[in-house]
Amino acid sequence: MNHGLVLGKFYPPHKGHLNLIREAKKQCDFLTVLICSLEREIIPGFLRFEWMIELITDPNIKLVWVQEENPQYPEEHPNFWNIWKHTIESYSIHPIDIVFTSELYGDPLASVLGCKHIPIDIERKEFPISATKIRESPLNHWNYIPETIRHYFVKRIVLTGSESVGKTTLAKKLAEHFKTNWIPEFAREYLEQKPTPMDESDFLPIAKGHLLSEIEAAKTSNGILFLDTDLLTTKVYLERYYRSEIPWLTKRALSLQYDASLFLDIDIPWEKDKLRDLGEEREEMKTRFLESMEEANRDFYLIKGNFLERETLAIDYVNKIKEWPINATSFTKEQMILRKIE
C-alpha cells in the first residue's frame, strides 16, 4: 500500500489546502493528514479539526489533530527535524512513502523521513492564497474560503439606536450596496403577526427568533451581515416597559460579540407607527442605548445627518471594516455556545 502524508496548520483551511489533499490522494492509496495547532493560535485547533472533518470525507484519508507544542522553524531548536520526525511517525499507522506539500520545507522533511517528496502547486499559481492572507483580510480573499465554513468569517455589523432613527432603511441600503444579507428586526415581524398586544412573555421568543435569524443569515452572507438591531436592543425595551430581565437574554445581550456597531442618532424626524410609542422619550431612550452599549463594552461608529448623509457615512465605515483581520472572538467556545439556541 502506498502511504502519503500531508501536514499543516490549516489556519484556516482554504481551497488551496483542499486542492493539495485532493491531488495527493490521487497519487497514493492511503493518505494521512496531520492538522497541527498551538495553544496560542486564535483559531483553536479543535475547531480547525472539526472543519477538516466536515471538508474531507474520503474514507481513505485519515485526519489527525496534532497538539504538540513543537518548534515551528529550524532556527528555534537544534533538534527541530528529529522532533518533527518523532511526532509524525507517532501518528502514522503505516510507514510514509510520499510527503506532499506546497511548501519549501518539503525536501528537507522528506529527507528526514526517508521518503519521496512530491510538490503540488508550490508556486501557488493555481491557488494564489495562504492562510496568513485570509487571517489578515478574510473579505479580500473570500472566494478561497470553503463555503461551509465562511459564516465564521462573516463581519457582523449591528445597526443600533432608539425608535425611528432609520435602522431598517439603512440596513437595506447597505445590504444592497455590498450585495449581501441583512436581517430585519425580528420583534416587528413577531408582533405584527401576534393577534394580542405585546406582553412580557413575548421577549424571550423575540430574542431567540432574532438570534436564530442571525445564525441562518450568516451562512449565506457575502462576507458581511447587517443586523437591524440585536439582543441588546431587546434588553433595553424589556427594561423600559417591564423593569425586569430574563437571564438568558441578559447574558447574550451583554456577552455576544460583533465586529462593529453603527449607532444611529436621533437627528431625523420621528415617525409614528402602530409599534412606536416613545416619540416623547427620544433623548432619554438615546441615553439608555448609549448606557447599554457601554455596559456591553461595545464601541461604535456614530451615524447622523439626513438619510443620504447617513448612507454615505455608513458605507465609508463599512469599507474600512471590510479590511479588518479575522475577529479572534468569533472562534471562541464561549461565543459559539452563546449563539446556540436551546
From TrEMBL:
Matches recorded under InterPro entries: Cyt_trans-like (IPR004821), NAD_biosynth-regulator (IPR052735), NadR/Ttd14_AAA_dom (IPR038727), P-loop_NTPase (IPR027417), Rossmann-like_a/b/a_fold (IPR014729)
Positions of the NadR/Ttd14 AAA domain: 156-310
Every Cytidyltransferase-like domain range: 6-39
CDD domains: NK
PANTHER family from the UniProt entry: NADR_TTD14 AAA DOMAIN-CONTAINING PROTEIN, TRIFUNCTIONAL NAD BIOSYNTHESIS/REGULATOR PROTEIN NADR
Protein name stated in the entry: ATPase
